[in-house]
Specification:
Length: 134
């Protein structure tokens, strides 16, 4: 079952034409991942980064932008786990406004030690929360 959350398009997300400037989508996508880790996995980014000195940087990202999003709209984001590897997590995130598809993003996160920058195997305490939604 996908993790669902929403984001309102604010002035800060838009270019002078009033549509979302594409790099801002990546900020929104990262905030969805952050909410997923806090709300579903039970490890917010403070716990991961500051307390555990681990992180989940994006190793791969591929995005299709289907239609523009405009100031004042609300986007519904659905994040689904596609695959869980030893050290990686493949995600698909879809954003819609109403029934209209706005973007589809396939990305891969890697669980890493922040001190060395090296990948780490997912601890069972995190792995058990990753439900695969194929």
């Amino acid at each position: 079952m996908p993790f669902v959350t929403q984001r309102k398009i604010r002035f800060q997300h838009c270019d002078p034409a009033g549509i979302v400037f594409y790099p801002r989508y990546y900020e929104m996508l990262n905030s969805v991942v952050e909410d997923y880790f806090a709300d579903v996995v039970g490890h917010d980014f403070n716990r991961l980064h500051v307390e555990s000195r681990t992180g989940v940087p994006t190793a791969r990202i591929e995005t299709d932008f289907h239609a523009p999003s405009r100031l004042g709209e609300t986007l519904i984001f659905e994040l689904a786990i596609r695959h869980v590897g030893r050290t990686s997590l493949a995600l698909r995130t879809v954003a819609r406004c109403g029934e209209e598809l706005r973007l589809t993003c396939d990305s891969t996160l890697v669980f890493v030690d922040l001190e060395s920058g090296r990948p780490l195997p997912w601890p069972d305490t995190l792995r058990r929360h990753f439900a695969i939604d194929l």
